Amino acid sequence: MEYSEILRTRRSIRSYEERPVPVELLREMIRESTLAPSSGNNQPWRLVVITNGEMMRRISDESKKNLIARLEADPGDYIVRYESALRNREYNVFYNAPALVIVAGSRDYRNLLVDCALFASYFMNAAAARGLGTCWVNLGSDVRDPGLRAELGLSDDDRIVAPIIIGYPRAIPAAPIRREPDIIRIIE
Ligand SMILES: Cc1cc2nc3c(=O)[nH]c(=O)nc-3n(C[C@H](O)[C@H](O)[C@H](O)COP(=O)(O)O)c2cc1C
After folding, report:
1. Residue at 59 is within a domain
2. What is the pLDDT of residue 1?
3. 31 partner at 20 to 30 Å CA-CA among 62, 76, 78, 90?
């Protein structure tokens, strides 16, 4: 696939076929995504790969619970726009996708967010190039329960940056409209 076609094909996918994604394929895409640039080539990302639907549901429920608590503590929090979904017991923030890759890393590392976001971007494009769909789901990132974190292999030091669901899309929607980029100035 041409690079520009990969960019056009990569859309946030929220509806997936009930078809599993082989772990070996996920490994291949993760390895490919390590080609992403990172500050000082430090590659601070650590990955958790999950294909277990029950575990994904538990993470979804845990994150929803914590986000609702956050909202109750601060009703002005921007996540108020997702309140009705978060309060819906049936709502799975991971849209019943067949797999989830969590990109995390040491919370004290100064370039963690940028480096992990670059990794995530490469990963989403690697998936699109293989006909797979992804969606970065921040609503699934608020995992605090120590027992659950331990099951995921995350230490207290780890911050979840990008929970990315992945699977075979039922359909690829058109891209949401993009604004013209604000090029402030061209100096030739
Ligand atoms: C940091 C980040 C967080 C996101 N969190 C969510 C989320 O929690 N749930 C969701 O459905 N989509 C989420 N998205 C997907 C965006 O809504 C999506 O990228 C945007 O609407 C543009 O659509 P496109 O990805 O198809 O181009 C997130 C995207 C990013 C980059």
Report:
1. yes
2. 85
3. 62
Site residues for ligand 1, CB cut-off 6 Å? 11-12, 14, 135-139, 175-176
Please report whether residue 178 resides in a domain.
no
Q: How many domains does the chain have?
A: 1
For ligand 1, pick from 6, 12, 59, 124 the residue to mutate: most ligand atoms within 8 Å of CB: 12
pTM value surpassing 0.85: yes
Cα–Cα distance measured from residue 124 to residue 127, given in angstroms and rounded to the nearest whole number: 5
**Which has the closest alpha carbon to 14: 117, 85, 76, 77?**
85
CATH number of the domain residue 75 falls in: 3.40.109.10
Helix axes 23-33, 112-129, angle to 10 degrees: 130
Among protein residues, the one whose CA lies closest to atom 19 of ligand 1? 12
Using 50, 70 and 90 to split pLDDT, how confident is the model at 57?
A: very high
Asked if the structure places residue 18 within a domain, the reply is: no
- Which residue, by CA, sits nearest to atom 31 of ligand 1? 136
What digits encode the pLDDT tens for the residues 76-134?
Answer: 999 999 999 999 999 999 999 999 999 999 999 999 999 999 999 999 999 999 999 99
Instruction: Let me know if residue 149 belongs to a domain.
Output: yes
Query: Residue 68 belongs to what domain range?
Result: 24-167
CA distance 156 to 152: 12
